[in-house]
Amino acid sequence: MGRLIVIEGLDGAGKRTLARGITAELTARGCAVSSAAFPRYTEDVHAELVAEALRGRHGDLGSSVHGMAVLYALDRRAAADALRAELDAHDVVLLDRYVASNAAYGAARLHEHADGDFVSWVRDLEITRFGLPEPDLQILLRVPADVAAGRAEHRERTEADRGRDRFESDSSLQQRCAEVYSELADADWWTPWVVVDGVADVDFSVLVDEHVRG
């Protein structure tokens, strides 16, 4: 059984870059690595509905914190069996976002903290009821909200398929989300967390040795 490693952080934090660096380091060491990202916008109907709602379709769906959270959760539930198969076939499976994203963004939208009702509700839904595969490690790629926003804006200008949605464009929401993420990491919510500075250069060899390989 492989190790499930999750990368969490704000939009524009650099999660893809971190995933590529970890993958390169592990591959160089002879490890079999698989990766995926949530939401699976091009693979799952629930994620498709999320993308459409974030751009104003489906009436007031995008305004419903719990409604959107259920769609995010159903996307992961639909992927659970395939994820378990990937864990059976690989040494490490890297995920760009997972359950904690749902908890952090929903709590931030409701102006709650990590110890609030929404995070507990997400845990009951995705972890207890859906029984999603448990991460061995959750990595918070921490950057200041203004830095993440600047990166996301640059990405939007330079990559045709990376336009920001309504959550990504909301600076106050991103700031609150950063605070909830930090609270989740500090509490080792669900499984162990490690915080990586998303502004400084990452030593992938040290990160893999100390945390990813276990």
TrEMBL record:
- Any keyword ATP-binding? yes
Q: Which Gene3D superfamilies match?
A: P-loop containing nucleotide triphosphate hydrolases
Q: Which GO terms describe its cellular component?
A: cytosol
Query: Which InterPro entries did the record assign?
Result: P-loop_NTPase, Thymidylate_kin-like_dom
- Ranges where the Thymidylate kinase-like domain occurs: 7-190
Tell me a Gene Ontology molecular-function term this record carries: ATP binding
Q: Which Pfam families match?
A: Thymidylate_kin (PF02223)
Task: Share an example GO biological-process annotation for this protein.
Answer: dTDP biosynthetic process
Would the keyword Ribosomal protein turn up in this protein's UniProt record?
Answer: no
Keywords assigned by UniProt, alphabetized = ATP-binding, Kinase, Nucleotide-binding, Transferase
The record ties this protein, via PANTHER family, to:
THYMIDYLATE KINASE, UMP-CMP KINASE 2, MITOCHONDRIAL
Protein family per UniProt: Belongs to the thymidylate kinase family.
**Protein name, entry field:** Thymidylate kinase
Which taxonomic lineage does the organism of this UniProt entry have?
Bacteria, Bacillati, Actinomycetota, Actinomycetes, Pseudonocardiales
